[in-house]
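Protein 1 of 2
SEQ + STRUCT:
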Amino acid sequence: MVYFNSVPIKMAEGTTTIKRSRARELALCAVFAALMGAGGLISIPVSPVPFTLQTFFLYLSILVLKRGAALSQAIYIAMGLAGLPIFSRGMGGYAVLIGPTGGFIIGFLLSALIAGAYLSAPWGRRSPLLALGIAMAIVFGFGGMWLGFWLGLDFYAAYLGVLPFIPGDVAKAALAFAAFKKIRM
């Protein structure tokens, strides 16, 4: 017999984990949405797209929440669209989505949805690093595509524009993975 929040829970023989409660999942989604906002405020201005800590929190949310990461990103985007200054450089409102960083913001949601679903699938549970690679590819794919459209660049020039961000994101993904290994929720 295992006790969870002072309530006895009968577990199947041979199992050692307890499924998270829905309330805890929702609280973690809200925390990661807030962390995404804080990560947007911590930025190094590089025009037109700054270096931020948002992708670190995105990658960590995918590892911790799996499918729930999409909800955390949806909350983050909804807060920003409502006008809260939580997008990069302290911006908010719907105009950010049609600006140069809009593709990255949409990429956050799609990468959380796809990489989180991958990690939740039985075949994806053993390869969190691949899930982070998938998430990174989606963020940079959508971000580069939209940035190129916004600046009027061709495909090649647009992706040369996001190339400087990739080493930093590989480092952020590695740090997120190391943090996840330490907290293992």
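Protein 2 of 2
SEQ + STRUCT:
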Amino acid sequence: MRYFILVLISVLAMSCAYDLGYRSKNLPGGHKVIHIPMFSNETMSVGLETYFTNELKRQFYRSKVAKVSDQAPVKIIGKIRRIYIDQTEARASREDFENLPANTVLTTSYNMTIDVKVQMLRRSDQKVIWQSEFTDFLPYSGAQLKLEGINSSNTIYNQSAINNNIQKLAAIIMAEAFNRLTENF
């Protein structure tokens, strides 16, 4: 009998905690239909806006918090404000790399930082209902050089690494934007 009561209390306690800890996600104002136009890109890098727009739409399609439609009463606009790639240098000495000239600097990795602003606007009067800014960074490795004969770095690899990093940052930043946008409403 004691075992049965202990199990019953445990099940009730877990179910109550589940109800208390779970909150449904909603948009500000309880909107169920939204419009997400292409993000604007204020950087000199081409194509960033596609990754961020598609990733935010993907968040809404998966969650079903709101339907994405061109005829919605509210829209979520985004601006990619800045992309910054910072080089991490590794200085070489003659003992480390016999074939390189003295004081050679090799860039072995980069840090990519992206700043994005997201706003939710009412379409009828363009009033801002919600807004937030997001900044995040990810490191990525640069193209590695062979020491025999010193090959030049592969520019196609570098561009591919940049695009992969942008896609990863878009997923991270837009997941955070979605979570902030749908919390506590």
